[in-house]
UniProtKB/TrEMBL annotation:
This is Glucokinase. GO terms for molecular function: ATP binding; D-glucose binding; glucokinase activity. Keywords: Kinase, Transferase. GO terms for cellular component: cytosol. Belongs to the bacterial glucokinase family. It comes from Roseivivax halodurans JCM 10272.
Length: 318
């Protein structure tokens, strides 16, 4: 088919590949490949297309790592991704390589109501206003989403490596502990999967308790453990402060969209843990913050949708 596209989302452990027509990904075409079983992305794409005897018109790859000029290196996998190599592996005439958060940004205008959960209400009647995606998972990142001239623009970003926003004496002690133990106090060092474990470990050092992994901390929180709850509260408040800072920097009146595995685990608890209060804690601008809605993206395939949407715009189908 002339408008058929192949899209891929590369994570640290698995790569998911699917077919798309326009902005719609075919759910029945999604296939997962374990990265350790393959030498690189070309092998995965060639195998996927060969099994289906398909020659796509376009291809887009979303990857967990920085991308520049169509070339990227994955953060947690010894693979590199090159636009020219993807073109050779797929035979596609239109090829794009995106950071995975950029792909999430391209997806936000195509998400359905059943894949979004409201965390904080806000004004939702500004469809062409800037939006913001915040990814919280193995790492942390954020990027604005703009609509200009009928095109979606999602500039690359490494926002997860800005300094951790700290306000209280406890947060200052956490910052100093992160520097002493891990060498830096970038936001990602606390606001990620490993960051959550580090917050708990910091509290354990102060109280003499034993550190736990993330899954055990969540289980302890569910069982009513006060130290686990405190770790959850610190995480939620720091995330609220970070999101609030980004909101004032970028003015995403079209909404803030949080994605990633850690965000999905924390999402149902964020309001109870103080996320909203920390988000609004901007002095005389506290009321101003009520304009920004915050939504949790629960669609695990949003990066594939965003890749398809990006290609559809380039092919004039969006």
């Amino acid at each position: 088919m002339p408008d058929l596209a192949v899209v891929a989302d590369i994570g640290g452990t698995n790569t998911r590949v699917a077919l798309a027509e326009g902005t719609a990904v075919d759910p029945s075409s999604i296939e997962r490949f374990r990265n350790s079983d393959h030498s690189g992305l070309p092998e995965v794409l060639e195998r996927y297309l060969r099994n289906r005897n398909i020659s796509p018109a376009a291809a887009c790859v979303a990857m967990a790592g920085p991308v520049r000029d169509g070339i990227g290196t994955l953060t947690n996998l010894d693979w590199s991704v090159d636009r020219d190599v993807v073109a050779e592996a797929t035979g596609a005439g239109i090829v794009a390589v995106l950071n995975d958060l950029q792909a999430q940004g391209h997806a936000v205008d195509h998400l359905t109501a059943d894949t979004l959960t409201e965390i904080l209400p806000g004004q939702t009647d500004r469809p062409h206003a800037a939006k913001l995606v915040i990814g919280v998972g193995t790492g942390l990142n954020a990027a604005p989403v703009f609509r200009l001239g009928g095109q979606t623009l999602v500039p690359p970003s490494e926002s997860g490596h800005v300094s951790l926003p700290v306000h209280t004496e406890e947060e200052l002690r956490l910052r100093d502990w992160l520097v002493r133990v891990h060498g830096t106090a970038g936001a990602e060092e606390a606001l990620s999967g490993r960051g959550f474990e580090r917050i708990h470990a910091f509290l354990c050092e102060e109280t003499g308790a034993s550190p736990l992994d993330a899954e055990a901390i969540m289980a302890a929180y569910a069982a009513g453990d006060p130290l686990a709850r405190r770790a959850m509260e610190i995480f939620a408040r720091l995330l609220g402060q970070m999101a609030g800072n980004l909101a004032l920097t970028l003015l995403p009146f079209g909404g803030i969209y949080m994605c990633g595995g850690v965000a999905r685990h924390f999402g149902p608890h964020l309001v109870d843990l103080g996320f909203g209060e920390a988000f609004r804690d901007k002095g005389r601008f506290s009321g101003f913050m009520d304009q920004f809605s915050v939504q949790l993206v629960t669609d695990d395939y949003a990066a594939l949708t965003g890749s398809a949407a990006h290609l559809a715009e380039r092919m004039g189908q969006a």
